[in-house]
Amino acid sequence: MVVARDEHNVADPSNPLTCVRHVTQHGDDTCLGLMVWIWCPGCQALHTPRFKCLKHGGPRKGPIWIGNPYSNPFTMTPSLLIHETPVSPLCHSFIKNGQWQYLHDCTHLLRGKTVPLEPLPDWLVEEFTGE
Fold first, then answer.
1. What are phi and psi for residue 110, nearest 5 degrees?
2. Which among 39, 42, 68, 91 is placed 20 to 30 Å from 83, CA to CA?
């Protein structure tokens, strides 16, 4: 691990690096696309870019990343930009061949570095696998 995680976000090294979820609109099940869950070691937080769902056609609007959400190693374009808030840093990166490529405008410790994707936290894996 590049940056030590707090106790709440520990991850078993065997946990998956990504998790793909089909997202639907509450109430009418309209397809909102495929969301890929990725742990960002720079922000110490989950990032969730959305991809087009080829089976159902969603999402119809909003930002959509390009790539195969099931690819291994995971790759996507264009860059992912997470805006700074009072509780999280600005994070601007590409993910190519299973590597985070953090750009120089990031405001966290991994600014300008390239690091491998890390396993998802145990709590997230448990929530979606029921284990």
1. -95, 15
2. 68
Distance set, CA 84 to CA 51, 55, 81 (Å): 23, 34, 9
Strand arrangement, sheet containing 99-102: 76-82, 91-96, 99-102, 114-116
pLDDT digits (tens, 9 = 90+) for 2-42: 667 788 889 999 999 999 999 998 888 889 999 999 999 99
The DSSP annotation for the chain comes to --SPPPGGG---TTS-SEEEEEEE-TTT--EEEEEEEEEETTTTEEE--EE--TTT---SSS--BBS-TT-SS--EEEEEEE--BTTB--EEEEEETTEEEE-TT--STTTT-EEE-BPPPHHHHHHHH--
Tell me the per-residue pLDDT of 60-116, one tens digit each, with 9 for 90 and over: 888 999 999 999 999 999 999 999 998 889 999 999 999 999 999 999 999 999 999
Q: For residue 130, which phi and psi values (nearest 5 degrees)?
A: 75, 15
To which residue do tokens 């374009």 refer?
A: 77
